[in-house]
């Protein structure tokens, strides 16, 4: 070992051990935690769903997370080449290439949403957003129908590309070390604000009151799918980050830290969102409607709302940016190796092409391309659907099967032996593949519950 295909100049790119944990948590904590998780939890039985989610995280999420990082570190290469280096079989790198393409496609629309959060951050702090009597639904629609989203998407791409051009320790690690603690502080300030609002208890109750009667097969599949998405699995992210980890670092401990971090952030996000929503008598929803239409109403009515609203959107923007960096790194690492480009050059080219590919997504949410619909879906929804429901499960399945069956020395690289190794292998060989296939069949509508 010692040599790496990731660097042209022959210098080895590595994370420090805390830098790696922070970067991986930055990747896993994203828009999924902030606006999807709280809502599905509230809707599917509160604390009962939360417990179910913890089980899914342990049974499906963590084994695949460990497998991805182990492949990356063992192969010391990007999401395609690592598979090849570990087995000497070419077809595995073709299968790994699926992840690289998935990451590229995800970035093309994730950057759009990340751009919206930046626009809203700026509008909040400058006071433009919270004028009295604003109809936030039309305000968002007006924004999305124009060309401003393109500008903000470009900003996100440029910032991510610039950070990645600086490299692993001077870019990814450095910015996560600044952003994650900042994120934590904002999170705590907002949690304190929301929990002290009048009527906050009703929100906490909606989010966490256990109702085991709401748990069914459907909630189980949703919990599993979300465990997967939330840990950034199935698209080469954790694999690529894993390739920059020192041999001396324990991947088992890293897996636990990342899983725990993801869970805690999801919990706090719910404790911010629901008390705020309920305190102002609003409807709890999810996604775009929740973040850009409902919550601004609450912020516009509370004292210092522009400040707290600004903090909230800044929180979303940081969550999105630290995830976006990890997504864009997947194709950049691939390009550096494949075309022997320097890192800055690879970062520039990949960023520009990804931005161009994302333009149709940016213009299809209420914009000029919104009437262009394929199979009942706008371009944005289509890219989201194909990546999240088809390509990511496929990528996860490839990782589980590769580690479980094809690569014989995974246990050694992961530092597992005895009971833990056997348990890990059982989960990767049997449980994860079955569950991933079930999630896939459910989400494309082949099995109905
Ligand atoms: N895990 C991120 C979230 O919860 C999303 C993500 C998916 C990030 C895939 C990177 C890769 O929002």
From TrEMBL:
It is found in: Membrane. The chain crosses the membrane at residues 15-35, 47-71, 91-112, 150-168, 180-201, 221-242, 263-282, 302-335, 347-374, 386-407, 419-444. It is a multi-pass membrane protein. GO terms for molecular function: symporter activity. Keywords: Membrane, Symport, Transmembrane, Transmembrane helix, Transport. CDD domains: SLC6sbd_Tyt1-Like. GO terms for cellular component: membrane. Its main location: membrane. It comes from the Bacteria. InterPro entries: Na/ntran_symport, SNS_sf, YocR/YhdH-like. The keyword Translocase does not apply. Coiled coil: none annotated. Belongs to the sodium:neurotransmitter symporter (SNF) (TC 2.A.22) family. NCBIfam families: Na_transp. This is Transporter. It comes from Paenibacillus foliorum.
């Amino acid at each position: 070992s010692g040599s790496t295909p990731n660097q042209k100049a022959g210098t080895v790119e590595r994370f420090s051990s805390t830098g790696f944990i922070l970067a991986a948590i930055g990747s896993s904590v994203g828009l999924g935690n902030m606006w999807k998780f709280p809502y599905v939890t509230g809707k599917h039985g509160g604390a009962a769903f939360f417990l179910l989610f913890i089980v899914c995280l342990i049974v499906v999420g963590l084994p695949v997370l460990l497998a991805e990082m182990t492949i990356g570190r063992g192969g010391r290469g990007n999401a395609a080449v690592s598979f090849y280096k570990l087995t000497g079989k070419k077809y595995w790198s073709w299968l790994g290439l699926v992840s690289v393409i998935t990451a590229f496609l995800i970035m093309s629309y994730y950057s759009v949403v990340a751009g919206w959060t930046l626009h809203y951050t700026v509008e909040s702090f400058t006071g433009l957003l919270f004028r009295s009597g604003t109809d936030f639904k039309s305000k968002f629609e007006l924004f999305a129908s124009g060309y401003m989203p393109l500008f903000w998407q470009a900003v996100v791409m440029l910032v991510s590309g610039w950070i990645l051009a600086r490299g692993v320790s001077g870019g990814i690690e450095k910015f996560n070390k600044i952003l994650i603690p900042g994120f934590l502080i904002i999170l705590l300030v907002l949690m304190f604000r929301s929990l002290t609002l009048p009527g906050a208890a009703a929100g906490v109750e909606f989010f966490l009151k256990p109702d085991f009667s709401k748990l069914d097969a459907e909630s189980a599949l949703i919990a599993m799918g979300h465990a997967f998405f939330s840990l950034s699995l199935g698209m080469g992210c954790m694999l690529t980050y894993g390739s920059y980890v020192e041999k001396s670092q324990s991947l088992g401990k890293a897996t636990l830290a990342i899983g725990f971090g993801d869970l805690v952030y999801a919990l706090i996000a719910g404790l911010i969102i629901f008390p705020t929503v309920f305190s102002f008598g609003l409807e709890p929803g999810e996604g775009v409607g929740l973040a850009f239409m409902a919550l601004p109403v609450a912020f516009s009515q509370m004292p210092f709302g522009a400040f707290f609203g600004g903090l909230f959107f800044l929180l979303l923007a940081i969550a999105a940016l630290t995830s976006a960096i990890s997504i864009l790194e997947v194709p950049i690492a691939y390009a550096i190796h494949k075309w022997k480009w320097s890192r800055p050059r690879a970062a520039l080219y990949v960023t520009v092409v990804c931005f161009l590919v994302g333009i149709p997504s940016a213009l299809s949410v209420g914009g000029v391309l919104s009437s262009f619909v394929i199979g009942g879906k706008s371009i944005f929804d289509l890219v989201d659907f194909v990546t999240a429901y088809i390509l990511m499960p496929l990528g996860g399945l490839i990782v589980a099967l590769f580690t479980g069956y094809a690569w014989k020395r995974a246990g050694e690289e992961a530092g597992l032996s005895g009971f833990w190794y056997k348990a890990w292998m059982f989960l990767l060989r049997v449980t994860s593949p079955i569950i991933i296939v079930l999630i896939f069949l459910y989400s494309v509508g082949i099995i109905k519950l």
